[in-house]
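Marked as duplicate of an earlier ticket. Keeping the data here for the record.
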Amino acid sequence: MDEQALTLRIDEALREFTARELVAGAEVVDFLLDLRLMLLAAEEPQPAAT
């Protein structure tokens, strides 16, 4: 996952949450967990090509 993909995901969530009157805490937690998983996946070492 690259920085651009992460930024796009954040932008999508901002548009979604901005359009609402109320946002449930569970939705915000889901979003933050998604971001955390994306960051962890980006940090995983890639297997060497042989």
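See parent ticket for discussion. Residues 3-43 form one domain.
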